[in-house]
Amino acid sequence: MSDEAPWLDEAEMATWLALIGVVMRLPGALEVQLRRDADLNHFEYCVLVGLEHAEDDTMRMSDLAFLCNGSLSRLSHVARRLESEGLIERFACPDDGRSTLARLTAAGRERLAKAAPGHVKLVRNLVFDELDDDEMRQMGELAKRVLARIQA
Amino acid sequence: MSDEAPWLDEAEMATWLALIGVVMRLPGALEVQLRRDADLNHFEYCVLVGLEHAEDDTMRMSDLAFLCNGSLSRLSHVARRLESEGLIERFACPDDGRSTLARLTAAGRERLAKAAPGHVKLVRNLVFDELDDDEMRQMGELAKRVLARIQA
DNA sequence: CTAGATTTATTGAAGGTTCAATGAAGCAGG
DNA sequence: CCTGCTTCATTGAACCTTCAATAAATCTAG
């Protein structure tokens, strides 16, 4: 932990305000579309996408929670809702009796299909259409390095 | 709204995952410190900081909500809590009968003083210590442009 | 001038997230 | 083995945010 200069200078403050602005506003912007097109919030969408990209559409709860950048408790509550809607199913892990596996159902895949096209369009519209290829890669690299610190 | 290519290529996806990771995890990381040091969540902290930087420590509710990247309804609920703790006070705007002004109290300033040093340290630790000056400015510029799209 | 539209703010209800507690399953050392 | 420690997951309560409804003040078009 750094232990120096008390506050941020002008350039740092400008950067921080822009970053925190994106952090605070992006989820809400994404959720408008997801709610309208597929009645999902952003975290629910991440869960379904995470499963879709996994082997056999199946993943351990705790791995899924990490992938989706949420707590296990949060995922557990969300999984109950998604399961009650038939979008995922849960079952005991054969290899480790402590673990639960979650799997995307056909209905879950259909729901995802309703959300995804509009979601991608929106992501392009909000982020990628604004950046050229160099800027996009630079943004990714910087975000990746900051993310590594947050996760540590 | 762009209306092209259906999904993100590999580099775009890597960028998106890093960006969304920061977006999802940063608030939680900040709140641990704020809760510990000053029993505030991040939005409450933003409200107090916003007022501290304003003329006469006073700002219209709707301007404050925009500055803090939240809805007016959210601010209204939070303002009730902060006011009941004596950290801010609210009063009618003399110029426009529809508006309410919020002002930071002495107690609010003290509470902020408990939170701020640790908050700045954490922000430096998570973000600015990772970036050199060029990278910091680049990040700020890119975030600013993306934020402009989100706000529009 | 005034009727309707807009801006500003608050409120209650519904829904989602966090936090702490609980418990089951596996692991590690004696 | 069996005791304590760790991992994995769920749960309920408390808390926070969102959404829709409400209402007051201001603006605007005719």
UniProtKB/TrEMBL annotation, chains A, B:
Gene Ontology molecular function, alphabetical: DNA binding; DNA-binding transcription factor activity
Highest taxon, organism lineage: Bacteria
InterPro entries, alphabetized: HTH_MarR-typ, MarR/SlyA-like, WH-like_DNA-bd_sf, WH_DNA-bd_sf
Start and end residues of each HTH marR-type domain: 10-148
SUPFAM superfamilies associated with the record: Winged helix' DNA-binding domain (SSF46785)
Gene3D superfamilies per the UniProt record, alphabetical: Winged helix-like DNA-binding domain superfamily/Winged helix DNA-binding domain
GO biological process, one term: response to stress
Pfam families reported for this sequence: MarR (PF01047)
Key words, A-Z: DNA-binding
Designated name of the protein: MarR family transcriptional regulator
Organism the protein comes from: Glycomyces lechevalierae
